[in-house]
Design brief:
Elements (H helix, E strand, L loop, with lengths): L1 H16 L12 E8 L5 H16 L4 E8 L4 E8 L9 H13 L4 E6 L15 E6 L3 H15 L5 E6 L5 E8 L1 H6 L4 H12 L2 E7 L4 E6 L3 H4 L9 E3 L5 E3 H4 E8 L5 E2 L2 E10 L5 H15 L5 E5 H32 L4 H5 L3 H14 L6 H30 L4 H32 L5 H37 L11 H9 L1
Antiparallel strand pairs: 1-3, 1-4, 2-3, 5-14, 5-15, 6-14, 7-12, 8-9, 10-11, 13-14
């Protein structure tokens, strides 16, 4: 009984200690690479960076095919399809670890690599799989605080690929039209807008219809003029009198820095910081570290929340613990109705702490996070382990009804039920052992379930046959009721159990 109490306390300690995750990383053979260059970079330069990254990834022996996308602004995306395993010998995480320093060595860009999760929670896209969103009514204070938090998160030892959607240093040209001067020269603001649109907005002015195709006529400046801000002063607008008036005459052109995009969440300005975790670093520890860093860095006017998979992980912790508690409660109620006793269900459930301890200890020894799949394995253990107690208690209770003392009844229960208990346990072990070994495609997600079941069964089976009988005797003493043999009332029942 003392050992049972120690195991129960150790199970609670293990649950608090074991690293926790949400959904295990699964090797589907896909890699998503997000490249970010300096703000205000020209499209031609972004293409040059993209081609340099393409040369690196295409030479990797594990890469089968590459898809390249240059987005608007200063970002681009590379999608990799890896060779199947075999002949590929390294996992997708190992391939990412090999490519990450090579891509970040390209001057002028920052590369973030992620293994797309099998289940994506939330529709927000980011360069890394986990998001942390900051909100506040004061935009300037929000931007300043978010930059400080990003710098602090980059120093955390367990985080990699820390990135943000805060783009506020984009070079801009502010064109302030002097309306009075423009009107005196016979120009309207609409004419100036049309001239700028024709020069820089890829304006469609006509359509050519051919016998087998349609061609759109696009008017714009030559690329060398579009990339030179000084060329804006060379742009002329034709006034109503026919005179060509340079824009610099009627407008003041000012160079400045401004946001490329202003993001909102819940109608408030927001900044989302994305991050990834290093190999062997759990999501639960990352959540704790990010929360502590935000508390030490952010002012009280800025509110924070995790998004996507990180948010689902936070909410799932309490939900899974509640689910396990409800499952045990339902089993207790059903067993109480079956045996018409408040005590016998406790005897049957006395082996659950051993199963939980074995499952959590196995996950800790194999450096596997307590994920949703592992928690499903623990819930399976509740059903697999309690059947041992049911076999023992059911036999002992029926034997006591025939007048057999409690000590003798539970002893004979252990002897008679030993073979079926071992048979069912070994069948469950052999069924889950291949899952625990982790063979085949997608084994990363199934392996935590198998490890939890195998470890829990092995540890609980070793001690159940010794602890459950002792617990049964203590519960019988606790009940302290006078047993009246019923063999005289039901001779056939007594004879049947006597023969057995």
């Amino acid at each position: 009984m003392a050992l049972s109490l120690v195991i129960l306390a150790a199970t609670v300690w293990l649950y608090r200690t074991v690293p926790k995750g949400f959904i295990p990383s699964e090797d589907t053979g896909d890699v998503r690479i997000s490249l970010q260059a300096q703000q205000g970079i020209a499209f031609r330069d972004m293409v040059r960076h993209q081609r340099a990254a393409m040369d690196i990834v295409s030479k990797d022996p594990d890469v089968q095919s590459v898809l390249s996308l240059v987005n608007s602004g200063n970002t681009s995306t590379i999608l990799l399809r890896l060779n199947p395993m075999p002949p590929r010998t390294t996992s997708v995480d190992q391939t990412m670890a090999r490519l990450r320093p090579k891509l970040n060595a390209i001057p002028g860009i920052t590369a973030s690599l992620q293994n797309p999760p099998p289940i994506r929670v939330g529709g927000r896209q980011s360069a890394s799989p986990y998001q942390y969103t900051l909100q506040g009514p004061d935009t300037q204070a929000l931007y300043t605080a978010s930059q400080a938090l990003v710098a602090r998160m980059k120093t955390l030892p367990g985080l990699i690929d820390v990135n943000t959607d805060l783009l506020i240093s984009n070079p801009t040209l502010a064109i302030n039209v002097d309306r009075e001067r423009a009107a005196s020269l016979g120009l309207t603001e609409q004419q100036i807008d049309d001239a700028l649109s024709s020069a820089y907005a890829a304006r469609q002015i006509s359509t050519i219809y051919a016998p087998n195709n349609t061609y759109y006529v696009i008017m714009e400046l030559q690329p060398e003029f579009q990339e030179n801000p000084e060329a804006l002063s060379m742009l002329y607008v034709r006034a109503s009198s026919g005179t060509l008036v340079p824009i610099s005459t009627v407008a003041k052109i000012t160079k400045a820095l401004g946001p490329l995009v202003v993001n909102h969440s819940g109608q408030l300005p927001s900044v989302t910081i994305s991050f990834n975790t290093k190999s062997g670093y759990s999501l639960s520890q990352a959540v704790i570290d990010v929360t502590a860093a935000s508390r030490a860095t952010l002012p009280s006017t800025v509110t924070t929340s995790f998004q996507g998979n990180a948010q689902a992980f936070q909410s799932s912790l309490g939900s899974l613990a509640l689910l396990l508690s409800v499952a045990v409660l339902v089993i207790y109620v059903v067993l109480g109705i079956l045996y018409e006793s408040f005590v016998h269900p406790l005897t049957i459930l006395s082996a659950l702490p051993f199963a939980g301890f074995g499952a959590l200890l196995t996950l800790l020894l194999f450096h596997v996070d307590l994920s949703i799949y592992a928690f499903v394995g623990i819930i399976m253990l509740v059903g697999l382990v309690k059947k041992n107690g049911i076999m023992l208690v059911d036999f002992a209770v029926e034997a006591q009804k025939s007048g057999t003392p409690a000590e003798e009844a539970i002893y004979h229960a252990c002897v008679v039920r030993f073979r079926p208990i071992m048979m069912t346990t070994m069948a469950a072990l052999m069924g889950t052992l291949p899952i625990a070994l982790g063979f085949g495609a997608g084994s990363e997600s199934r392996r935590p379930l198998g490890l939890a079941v195998v470890g829990g069964l092995l540890f609980s089976q070793t001690l159940t046959l010794f602890v459950t009988p002792v617990f049964y005797l203590y519960m019988e003493k606790l009940r302290g009721r006078n047993r009246t043999p019923v063999a005289n009332q039901l001779p056939e029942l007594g004879a049947a159990y006597g023969a057995q």
